[in-house]
């Protein structure tokens, strides 16, 4: 008796693109909540600016290309790109950083290649690479995570930092920002400190940088 064989996948798979994008967004919620908990309102501003810019940029390019705008936007890929880049940016980055990154991600890295499915690289990460190479100073404005003796900027202070690029009264950018744990580890290793001595710093947690692990 001949038994027919089937190739994988063996479980039913949905090809609904919108549902797939939504699943990824839902999976990002715990990370977004953790970032907000440790780094404050800057993460929320990044997400709002990045996602709104992504939707507008996608709609404009689709209109110029003569493609259906509403149905394409409903697949959620533009929103997901905005969320991915927004979560990757420093919480105190000025407002124009996510705008530039998203414009490059949507217009150049995605739509210039033909849109979703034709782009060879992840648009959000292309935007991140452009930002980190073009604006290294603004891309290092990480505030110390709350819980290690530093006060995370509140809503109003973060609003001024993001949109006016002005620190709170009596403060400087150096006093409210810090090097990332990776940069700190690199610097201290160059000073011939052992790894045990490096991770004794309160900026390091059990498995990595406090607030990043």
Instruction: State the share of residues found in helices, binned by percent.
Output: 40-55%
How do the SSEs run, as a string of H and E? Answer: HHHHHHHHHH
Number of strands: 0
Count of separate structural domains: 2
Beta-strand percentage?
Answer: under 5%
Provide mean pLDDT, rounded: 82
Shape: globular
- C-alpha-based Rg, rounded: 21 Å
Helix tally equals: 10
Pairing-aware structural class of the strands and helices? mainly alpha
Question: Poorly predicted ranges (pLDDT <50, ≥5 residues)?
Answer: none
Instruction: Characterize the main sheet.
Output: none
- First-residue to last-residue Cα separation: 56 Å
Protein name: Electron transport complex protein RnfD
Keywords: Electron transport, Flavoprotein, FMN, Membrane, Phosphoprotein, Translocase, Transmembrane, Transmembrane helix, Transport
Pfam families: NQR2_RnfD_RnfE
InterPro entries: NqrB/RnfD, RnfD_bac
Summarize the structure.
With 213 residues, the chain is an all-alpha fold.
Which keywords apply here?
213 residues; mainly alpha; 2 domains; 10 helices; globular; membrane; translocase; electron transport; Electron transport complex protein RnfD
